[in-house]
Amino acid sequence: MNRHLTYITFGTILLLGHFLLAANLYVYASDVPHIAFSSNRDWNYDIYMMDIKGKNLQNLTNSPTHEFKPAFSPDGQQMAYVSSRHDGYLEIYIMALNTKISHRLTHHPKHDANPAWSPDGQWIAFDSNREATYDIYKIQPNGENLQRLTQGGDRNYDAACSPDSQSIVFFSSRKVPGIYIMDADGGNQRRLENQPRRGHMPSWSPDGKQIAFSDIILGGHRDIYTLNVDGSNLRRRTRHPADDFAPDWSPDGRSIVYYSRWNQKYDIYLIEGGLGRRAGQLTRHPAQDKDPTWVPAGYFSVSPTAETQATLWGRLKQSVQN
User: Fold this and answer.
1) Residue 314 CB: number of other CB atoms within 10 A?
2) φ/ψ bin of 306: left (φ > 0), alpha (ψ from -120 to 50), beta (otherwise)
3) For residues 114 and 127, is the Cβ–Cβ distance under 8 A?
4) Residue 117, SS3?
5) Would you say the pTM of this structure is higher than 0.85?
6) How many CA atoms are closer than 13 Å to the CA of 243, on its beta-carbon side?
7) Cα–chain center distance at 274
8) Residue ranges per structural domain of the chain
9) For residue 54, what pLDDT is reported?
10) Does the structure show a pLDDT above 50 at 21?
11) Class of domain 35-304
12) Separation between Cα atoms, residue 139 and residue 259, nearest integer Å
């Protein structure tokens, strides 16, 4: 009898421990923001994920070929990225994050790169040189309804979608180069006003009011700036004696992650209001770390839900009753 009670008590404690551990992991994952980025720390470029404390590093692609430029679906369940694994040309792939299984989205004997998932989840913008020069295209995640949005002989690339999915910001090399904005169907193309010189790698703020980008003052280094969509309130966010690239706004709009070249190598940095200084360095690896982007909270949705918790408690009760 005593032995039977001991087994029951032990089973209860064990299951309760599993429940609390799972719940704690869920709270941690939900509360601590994560970023994904490209790195060649395993010789070839793979896509990694870590929290903004620089911990809990995971290799998401783990492939012998190069993978880079991650872009997540709004629900956090899929990740678009770029790879040349099949024919040597850059193509866009989509990975189901719960299985880590990928399928090829684009199929063309030219380069397709820089995917950007629309916030409504309906399409992916990317740039391609399939018509001789680089232009912005968009395609549905199932590979249907490919549309060319820019044309005219200029180089157009690095698209980013507005929070309402109605507009796209991008870089263009046209007569007055810099950052341009267009409607999601390619119409109404216009240059962002009051750029310091000619911006690159734009990113839209979550509230839709600002655009962050990388720009260079004549004779200086490339820094991160923010500018209102109407051309007002220009702010210089970094003053590094190095080049800063590819800003990406956090989902709450309070932070910007980017990468910077110091001492002949690239690392990931963070701006949390004011100026981004060296204290905001997130990676310190001898490899090259680039292309940071924020991981949506939906990525962690497989963690304990109400249904999962009820199941755990049901099993716990059943073990006690038996």
Assistant:
1) 10
2) alpha
3) yes
4) strand
5) no
6) 14
7) 22
8) 1-33+305-322, 35-304
9) 85
10) no
11) mainly beta
12) 28
